[in-house]
Amino acid sequence: MASIKQINDRKFKITVSNGYRADGRKICKAKTITVPDSVTKRGIHQYVAHAAEEMERLIKDGFAEDGEMTFEEYANRWLDRQVKYAPGTIGSYRRMLNRVYPFIGTIQLNKLRPLALENMLTHLRKRENHGKPIRETTVQRYLTVVSAVLSDAKRNEIIPKNPARMIDLPDTEKREQFIPTEADATRFLYALKKEPWHYLIFYLLAIYTGCRRGELCALKWTDIEFANDETLEMVITISHSRSVVAGKGVVEGATKNGKTRIICVNEDMGALLATYFLRRKRQILEKRIKYGDYLFTDDEGNLIHPDTFTKHLRTIFKKNGFPKTFHLHTLRHYFVSTLLHHGVDKQTVAELAGHADTSFLEKTYCHPQLDLKRKAAVVIGDVLISTEERQPA
Fold first, then answer.
1. Which terminus of the chain has fewer CB atoms gathered within 10 Å of its CB, N or C?
2. Distance, CA of 74 to CA of 289 (rounded, Å)
3. Closest alpha carbon to 127 in 119, 135, 117
């Protein structure tokens, strides 16, 4: 029950009790209000009673109690509660939030307005990366993380609305995905034949399964099973990821979306995996080193740093004349794009790639490659020419 104390004719102090703290002290929230001059003397009592009732409702429902928490405090608690994301993803969220705290960190959740977020975006757009202004897509990525925090506060009924959803954002330039052609893929597979076995298997799995770098680095032998007793087809379970987290080094945790998925590989890839296992086993016996659980270890049985695979692939691309735009994630792009363009349904591709739904695929990959666009141009050209030829002279 709210208590009301009159300070003067139009000023009142409203106090609401909301349980007790762990040490037995009562939790109280107080607010001083001033009744507007537009309210008649006769209506003052009703105005104050309504204000007290509204304040009590907000506090009992949780709005006022947590709504007075600053954005930075709530965001840090939100980060600590996230268990389904990979450590690298959490690290990325933390870095972006640290970047926005100077602009909105001290503002209480229930006082954060779209204008403050727009001012934040204005300041972020002035930042530079290697002497060049950062891209609008990067700026909006900061807002996306802020919006995730505020959506969580709204879901928990701490704030009634998410102000980040009320901002009118400019269109962003769509970044073209550089996807290898089938000829590029063939040339790349040929180049891999010259590589040591741990690099060969790593990059083949990247292009055969579309797995992310961290997921492959966390792959264990126990994650691989034969699909049946008659063939070398194999089933791979993807459940962990090894990511590089700023200030913490390499950390193993869940996959990017926190979900486990199953991927099948054909007999050719299965045979290579079986051969790789036998070679590793022989190497371990010859060198008398400790047998490891992971697929990708060095000659001493130690885990290989994820960056090693990224840097070595750049060397392969450069040595074989591939475009500078190609990188490790390009192999994943090829996997997804190839499946889509050969008729595999979007839901299956999304599940294999570890996406929560098909929306990202639709925005990013559902476009024909250049060769397919050329074929489309030939088709429409042939149709129009044949139509013209059928016209009477």
1. C
2. 48
3. 135
